[in-house]
Recover the amino acids of this structure.
């Protein structure tokens, strides 16, 4: 506990935890409400479309499963980056951050390809209720992935400076990791609810 | 020395190393593969949905507890996250309970849709004549 307090320095809250970590957890809790609303909107509108295409006309489950594996792999590399930062292994941290960014970019590439394919098959935001709710939900998730990539990119660039990320490197990377893992768990729910359940 | 290492690990929250994380990732990958296989199993919707939701919950909990280190962190983080998660789940249940049946009744439920080839024109007509949606 004493070591932890020393590591977190003046950022300790009266609850005995790091303010910045607490803030990120509160932010992620609020994000649960955001995605909870979007997922329920999708479920309500999913079966209400008056015109095709419907989910069974456009979904490519093997392709989406592949992108799910990529995002899962990015969570693994992210946790290695946090491990590297916490155990004073900067090279491991940087390589793992880079791998996470690459995996995130591949995931976004899959999503762009999927959106483009759906568009070619006649599904867009204004086609039907399924299209509107699907694009809003997965689009917002993709935006979160994009924001996460910028966040991780700034971490990677910061870590390459002479002073690195400063004395709180482990905490900075851990907070970024919390955000990235949250993006992954939201996708775990979306993959099941949107793609797999008929 | 071992004691120092242990103290450092405790200070950082998680006692796990790369080996443990590889094992957790492999387990999560296997669960995802099982979900994928189940979606092609031909099971009825209710048992299939139940199984998929259970497997998804396992993955969700594993990532939050082990990758996000919630299992090893202060309980206040767990309480904060659970508060948001339960509220989010309550919103989901409430919205579905409120609107699912109502909208199905409004448009006539299980009516067969026209074939895929004509959906562009149908969509355009609906866009130009929103009263058809009422």
């Amino acid at each position: 506990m004493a070591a932890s307090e020393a590591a977190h320095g003046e950022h300790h809250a009266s609850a005995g935890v790091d303010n910045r970590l607490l803030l990120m957890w509160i932010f992620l809790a609020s994000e649960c409400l955001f995605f909870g609303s979007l997922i329920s909107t999708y479920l309500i509108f999913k079966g209400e479309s008056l015109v095709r295409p419907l989910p069974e006309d456009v979904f490519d489950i093997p392709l989406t499963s592949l992108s799910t594996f990529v995002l899962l792999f990015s969570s693994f590399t992210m946790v290695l980056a946090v491990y590297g930062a916490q155990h004073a292994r900067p090279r491991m941290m940087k390589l793992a951050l880079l791998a996470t960014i690459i995996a995130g970019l591949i995931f976004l590439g899959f999503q762009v390809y999927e959106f483009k394919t759906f568009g070619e098959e006649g599904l867009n935001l204004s086609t039907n209720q399924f299209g509107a709710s699907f694009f809003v939900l997965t689009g917002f998730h993709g935006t979160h992935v994009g924001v996460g990539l910028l966040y991780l990119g700034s971490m990677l660039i910061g870590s390459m400076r002479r002073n690195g990320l400063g004395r709180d490197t482990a905490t900075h990377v851990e907070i970024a990791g919390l955000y990235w893992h949250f993006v992954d768990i939201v996708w775990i729910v979306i993959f099941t609810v949107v793609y797999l359940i008929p | 020395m071992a004691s120092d290492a242990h103290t450092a690990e405790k200070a950082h929250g998680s006692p796990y190393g790369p080996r443990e994380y590889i094992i957790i990732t492999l387990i999560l990958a296997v669960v995802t593969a099982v979900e994928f296989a189940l979606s092609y199993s031909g099971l009825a919707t209710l048992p299939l949905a139940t199984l998929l939701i259970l497997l998804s919950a396992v993955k969700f909990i594993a990532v939050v507890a082990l990758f996000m280190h919630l299992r090893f962190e202060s309980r206040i983080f767990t309480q904060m996250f659970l508060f948001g998660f339960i509220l989010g789940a309550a919103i989901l249940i409430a919205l579905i309970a409120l609107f699912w049946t109502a909208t199905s009744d409004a448009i006539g439920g299980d009516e067969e849709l026209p074939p895929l080839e004509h959906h562009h024109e149908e969509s355009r007509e609906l866009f130009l004549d929103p009263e058809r949606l009422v």
User: Anything to note?
Assistant: Chain A has one domain: 2-196. The domain at 2-196 of chain A is CATH 1.20.120.80 (Four Helix Bundle (Hemerythrin (Met), subunit A)).
